Amino acid sequence: MKLYYHPVSTTSRPIMAFAADHPLDLEFQVVDLMTGEHLQPAYTDINPSQQVPMLDDDGFRLTECSAILKYLADKCDSAAYPKDLRQRARVNEMMDWFNTGLSRELGYGVVYPQVLPHYRRPDPAVQSGHLEWGCEKARRWLAILDGRILGGGRQWVAGDTMTLADYLGAGILTLGEVIRLDYAGYPNIQRWLKTIKDRPTWRQTNEAFYTYFVAPYQDGEFVSL
Ligand SMILES: N[C@@H](CCC(=O)N[C@@H](CS)C(=O)NCC(=O)O)C(=O)O
């Protein structure tokens, strides 16, 4: 199997982390988002969405990080994607929660418009209104994550053990580090992230993210939560 990915990408990092923790025969093929390789005909031909990640399993091509994680987990029979119907439904629920709610507001509402030129609104008033809106909505999701989902001493977001939802959620939350978001004021989120980041495979699979996406912006001025 081959994973087309980029090592700083928020949607690739959870798959890299999962793969590092599991016995998967996975070849990694960088698609250089920085030079626009994903927009070139060679990649567009195999992935018209022009995004990473994409998995190719013997000609079966699959996009969407959430779908790829589930596919890989079933492929290697991982306990991170439980077989029990309700436990699995809970994991699916949390993955959708992260990917459609928090990711939208935190990533597209707050972080990307400040660091990726093609997401910045050309009109300063629109940009500022967009960020204000994103921050307000992101704060709401973070309060739910901190208080309801990870509150009461819960260690993981979807059950008693680490699941795909934790892999995905940690990738999305750590994107905030690009604008130096440390989740002060959200102690349960901080505790949960620390547990995941203390895992031996975390630094290895996130090294490029910290080097090429977090470090260059460490002195930047950002609107933050
Ligand atoms: N819904 C997709 C989103 C994938 C995505 O946003 N990928 C980004 C990298 S994190 C990308 O390829 N961006 C390139 C671009 O949009 O130009 C998923 O969950 O996998």
What does this protein structure show overall?
The protein has 225 residues and is of the alpha+beta class. The protein is built from eight helices and four strands. It folds into two domains: 2-75, Glutaredoxin; 85-217, Glutathione S-transferase Yfyf (Class Pi), Chain A, domain 2. It is 53% helix and 7% strand. Strands 2-1-3-4 form a four-stranded mixed beta sheet, with helices on one face. α1 packs across α6 (164-174), α1 runs antiparallel to α8 and α4 (85-115) runs parallel beside α6. The model has no long low-confidence stretch (mean pLDDT 97). The chain binds glutathione. Glutathione (GSH) is lined by residues 9-11, 33, 38, 51-53, 64-65, 99.
Keywords:
four-stranded mixed β-sheet, Glutathione S-transferase Yfyf (Class Pi), Chain A, domain 2, 8 helices, 225 residues, binds glutathione, Glutaredoxin, 7% strand, alpha+beta
- Output the CATH topology of the largest domain: Glutathione S-transferase Yfyf (Class Pi), Chain A, domain 2
The global form is globular
Ligand catalogue:
glutathione
Count of DSSP H/I helices: 8
Strand content is 5-15%
Second rung of CATH, namely the architecture of the largest domain: Up-down Bundle
Main beta-sheet strand count, sense and barrel state: 4 strands, mixed
- Distance from N terminus to C terminus (CA atoms, Å) equals 39 Å
Summing up helix and strand content along with how strands pair, one would put the structural category as alpha+beta
CATH class of the largest domain, please? Answer: Mainly Alpha
Give the total of beta strands: 4
Domain count: the total is 2
What portion of residues is helical? Answer: 40-55%
Strand order across the biggest sheet? Answer: 2-1-3-4
Uncertain ranges: none
Element order: H for helix, E for strand: EHEHEEHHHHHH
Average of pLDDT: 97
Rounded to an integer in angstroms, the radius of gyration calculated over CA atoms is 17 Å
